[in-house]
Amino acid sequence: xxxxxxxxxxxxxxxxxxxxxxxxxxxxxxxxxxxxxxxxxxxxxxxxxxxxxxxxxxxxxxxxxxxxxxxxxxxxxxxxxxxxxxxxxxxxxxxxxxxxxxxxxxxxxxxxxxxxxxxxxxxxxxxxxxxxxxxxxxxxxxxxxxxxxxxxxxxxxxxxxxxxxxxxxxxxxxxxxxxxxxxxxxxxxxxxxxxxxxxxxxxxxxxxxxxxxxxxxxxxxxxxxxxxxxxxxxxxxxxxxxxxxxxxxxxxxxxxxxxxxxxxxxxxxxxxxxxxxxxxxxxxxxxxxxxxxxxxxxxxxxxxxxxxxxxxxxxxxxxxxxxxxxxxxxxxxxxxxx
Length: 338
Known about the structure:
By secondary structure, the protein is mainly beta. It has one helix at 5-21; strands at 25-31, 41-44, 49-54, 57-62, 67-72, 78-83, 89-94, 99-104, 110-115, 120-126, 131-136, 141-146, 151-157, 166-167, 172-177, 182-187, 192-198, 208-211, 216-221, 225-230, 236-241, 246-252, 257-262, 267-272, 280-285, 294-295, 302-306, 332-337. Strands 1-28-27-26 form a four-stranded antiparallel beta sheet, with no helix packed on it. The chain has a four-stranded antiparallel beta sheet with strand order 2-3-4-5, with no helix packed on it. Residues 1-20 have low confidence and may be disordered.
């Protein structure tokens, strides 16, 4: 039977929609091992390397093979990684050490340890000023490191506890303020806070991704929400529905999709960033506790750290809300791709 052109068009459109809605899946598990918890990770797309902060060390993984190629060691309790475009230098926020650790990307040796504020967490390289910004969770400020000298040249007060930052690559730095339910904008050259944007409908914003072409920020929040903000005006464009207890967000420019890693229910939410209302097009099952993530912007591949956990200890007077321990040698990277 021959189908009319309209029927064929509808059939093709339905097939394309189905493909879009069901195209992400877990394709691999890279075994890393070791002990302890983890925090942020960063994909060096050009070098095919993944940097994963794993308690007292940063694991470095070859993303072509899934095999470890080395590690930066000797941290007290690391949180995040930033990379210099010189392809030689990296920077780690060592929270318990109250420091930025500068390392060599060839042999992973530590080059310098620079004192900053209290409990640096999110960290990012700002390209117009060639500075590194370490956001200090407990002192509620940001330390600005000049990369040429490895000296802190400014400390900028913040209105609350900062989380994961982003830069627009034109001199602006953005960071969510978790305990104020807002995003702030900082001027990189003047070391100054220039705007505060409230986030109605968003509680405790944390991980944040950026779309530099459309000037948008995607920050994940408690209550299973992702808030989308126009970073030129500060206007909230919408709230996407995501999974439970998110801590990481990502954006894939070629696919026009945003991601949320949800540790509470062990899922990865895929959001269509091109459509009004920011609909969810897929929910991928990952693993309980897989709360942070990184995206390879050249391929759209997503990486999520995870592990197996033991039983939760009984509460005590000293620790009223104990956490389950990570079982030794179960740490891995979950790979999700189309």
